[in-house]
């Protein structure tokens, strides 16, 4: 199946998971998975949250994000992937001066 995110309506979610500013996403969801092409403007963040029943992969497309992962900090540059396994906590922040873009995949347990 091919997903064309340009044809999926953009959702703008303020303070996503308790974060800062707006989370912008084109989201596909079915019974097995949630797949998002998303962006964060400078100073925006997805709040810290724990994946109790699932996991998440974030593939950075453009820019550099900062991940708070289980209390530590990781830099996530374009071309790299962050993996948050079930039972772990993370967030994503844009501390740069440009918009960051990424794909996020959350398989349903």
Please render the helix and strand layout as text:
Elements: E1 10-14, E2 22-29, E3 33-40, E4 45-50, E5 56-62, E6 64-69, E7 72-77, E8 81-84, E9 89-93, E10 100-107
Antiparallel strand pairs: 1-2, 2-3, 3-10, 4-9, 5-8, 5-10, 6-7, 6-9
Structure at a glance:
By secondary structure, the chain is an all-beta fold. Helix content is 0%, strand content 58%. The strands form two sheets. It has a six-stranded antiparallel β-sheet with strand order 1-2-3-10-5-8, with no helix packed on it. A four-stranded antiparallel β-sheet has the order 4-9-6-7, with no helix packed on it.
What report would you give on this structure?
- The chain has 109 residues and is mainly β.
- It is 0% helix and 58% strand.
- The chain is built from no helices and ten strands.
- It has strands at 10-14, 22-29, 33-40, 45-50, 56-62, 64-69, 72-77, 81-84, 89-93, 100-107.
- The strands form two sheets. The protein has a six-stranded antiparallel sheet, with no helix packed on it. Strands 4-9-6-7 form a four-stranded antiparallel sheet, with no helix packed on it.
Order of helices and strands: EEEEEEEEEE
Into which percent range does the helicity of residues fall? under 10%
**Low-pLDDT windows of residues:** none
Strand order of the largest sheet: 1-2-3-10-5-8
Radius of gyration: 13 Å
- Main sheet record: 6 strands, antiparallel
Q: How far apart are the termini?
A: 21 Å
Overall pLDDT:
97
Number of helices: 0
Helix-and-strand structural type: mainly beta
Q: Beta-strand level of the residues, as a percent range?
A: over 45%
- Would you count the extended β strands for me? 10
Global outline: globular
């Amino acid at each position: 199946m091919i997903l064309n995110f340009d044809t999926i309506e953009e959702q703008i979610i303020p303070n996503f998971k308790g974060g800062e500013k707006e989370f912008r996403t084109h989201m596909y969801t079915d019974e097995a998975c949630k797949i998002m092409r998303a962006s964060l403007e400078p100073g925006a963040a997805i709040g810290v949250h724990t994946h109790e029943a699932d996991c998440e992969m974030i593939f950075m497309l453009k820019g550099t994000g900062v991940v708070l992962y289980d209390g530590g900090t990781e830099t996530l540059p374009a071309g790299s992937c962050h993996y948050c396994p079930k039972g772990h906590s993370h967030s994503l922040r844009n501390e740069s001066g440009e918009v960051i873009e990424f794909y996020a995949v959350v398989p349903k347990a």
